[in-house]
Amino acid sequence: MPSLFDPVQAGSLHLPNRIVMAPLTRNRAPGAIPTPLMAEYYAQRASAGLLITEATPVSHQGQGYADVPGLYGTEQLDGWKRVTDAVHARGGRIVTQLWHVGRVSHTSLQPGGAKPVAPSAITAKTKTYLIEDGKGRFADTSAPRALEAQELPGIVHDFRHAARHAVSTAGFDGIEVHGANGYLLDQFLKTGANQRTDDYGGSIENRARLLLEVVQAIAGEIGGGKVGVRLSPVTTANDIGDENPQALFDYVMRRMAGLDLAYVHVIEGATGGARELPDRPFDYAAMRTAYREAGGRGAWMVNNGYDKALAEQALAQGADLVAFGRLYIANPDLVERLREDAPLNVPDRATFYGGDARGYTDYPSLEMERSA
Ligand SMILES: Cc1cc2nc3c(=O)[nH]c(=O)nc-3n(C[C@H](O)[C@H](O)[C@H](O)COP(=O)(O)O)c2cc1C
Q1: C-alpha distances in angstroms, 67 versus 25, 28, 96?
Q2: Buried (b) or exposed (e) across 194-209, using 16+ Cβ within 10 A?
Q3: What is the pLDDT, as a whole number, of residue 134?
Q4: CA-to-CA dists, residue 221 to 159, 162, 224, 242, 243, angstroms
Q5: What is the pLDDT of residue 252?
Q6: How does DSSP assign 22-60, residue by residue?
Q7: What is the average pLDDT score of the chain?
Q8: CA–CA distance, 354 with 365 (Å, rounded to integer)
Q9: Which residue ranges have their beta carbon within 6 Å of ligand 1?
Q10: Are strands 321-324 and 299-303 parallel, antiparallel or unpaired?
Q11: C-alpha–C-alpha distance, residues 343 and 232, integer Å
């Protein structure tokens, strides 16, 4: 049985261990431009088998929170290049999570103060995060408008364009498509947010169409071996839900199998919450079997509430990689700490979103603790 500290191949990514830093939005990029402090933060965590950046909008329309870094302007790409250079200088590997929030946004964050876009004009009962006069606050999302069918090729284009520049200009080792947590691609997938009557709504095949078009377009552009996909079959995040997630994700997995992806990243249960949901049962082993039976060879990455013991159990049961979120906020050297069974720093929730170096780059490594 492989250990967390054994190498693994994920598509064209050679990973020295199986410990992944999960994508974590930190709202520390004023003007949507990655900062030198962000380069330091990611570089501190470079011993991870793989770093996945915070979610990164592929267009201004795809933005739903204040001070998140983008991937569609020259200054943004230059800022990210500083990040990837810093990570590579420390011997790390980093992919960026490509994001379109869809209806989880606010008019004040949209180009020209427009309504956010969605599969259908249904407001998400959830909050977004705004920063006004230097102070952060959570606010209700704005009512969205339904995207016209003829706008959808433009969204696919934005994802493909961002993926190309992520790799060729910003120096990323690959990208992860954010298909999870109730954002645009998840909104299209699930009945709770998609009431369309065209080719992108109704049947499972139709609801999965946009996600598959996006992933296919990106794989065609940069090679499937550099592409991961994040999915959350039964998450409750951002007011999302589906009538029959097992059948939906069985179909999605069978279709993804042919794309030679680097990895499939699955959030089990409610993101950041319960791993088992009594009212939303789901068989993750069956989801993986659907992928493998259809010929899918990408690495299988699991996430949500993992500690070392649970992670080792997941590897024993066939997972290839485990992504850690909150533990990575507080433990830049999580790999070393898990290897040595050293105590873990506790993350400070008050500094998760927005702010400065406090609660961001000032969590000590073991080495710093020992030399103090
Ligand atoms: C502060 C914070 C920011 C997050 N940002 C993102 C994000 O940008 N993209 C994403 O897919 N998930 C995001 N998540 C979810 C995490 O990636 C992860 O799924 C969740 O924290 C559960 O994993 P954990 O139990 O190891 O923390 C975020 C979670 C937290 C706590």
Answers
A1: 10, 6, 16
A2: bebeeebbeebebbbb
A3: 81
A4: 10, 10, 9, 31, 33
A5: 98
A6: PP------GGG---HHHHHHHHHTTTSSEEEEEEEESSG
A7: 97
A8: 22
A9: 22-25, 54-55, 97, 178, 180-181, 230, 267, 271-272, 303-306, 324-327, 352
A10: parallel
A11: 30
Per-residue pLDDT of 300-339, as tens digits, reads 999 999 999 999 999 999 999 999 999 999 999 999 999 9
Residue pLDDT, tens place only, 239-277: 999 999 999 999 999 999 999 999 999 999 999 999 999
* Rounded distance from Cα 47 to ligand 1 centre (Å): 19
CA of 178, closest atom in ligand 1: 11
For the CA of 180, the closest atom of ligand 1 is 11
Residue 269, phi-psi category: left (phi > 0), alpha (psi -120 to 50), beta (remainder) = left
CA-proximal residue: ligand 1, atom 6 (nearest) = 24
- Give the C-alpha separation, 198 to 208, whole Å: 13
Residue whose entry in the numeric block shows the structure tokens 């933005």: 63
Residue positions annotated with a catalytic role: 183
- Closest protein CA for atom 30 of ligand 1: 24
Q: How would you classify the pairing of strands 321-324 and 117-118? A: unpaired
Q: Residue 157: its pLDDT value, please? A: 98
With a CB cutoff of 8 Å and minimum separation 6, the contacts of 120 are: 146, 193, 194, 195, 196, 201
Which residue has tokens 């250990």?
3
285 burial class (0-12, 13-18, 19+ CB within 10 angstroms)? Answer: exposed
d(CA 231, CA 193): 16
Q: Tens digit of pLDDT for each residue in 178-219?
A: 999 999 999 999 999 999 999 999 999 999 999 999 999 999
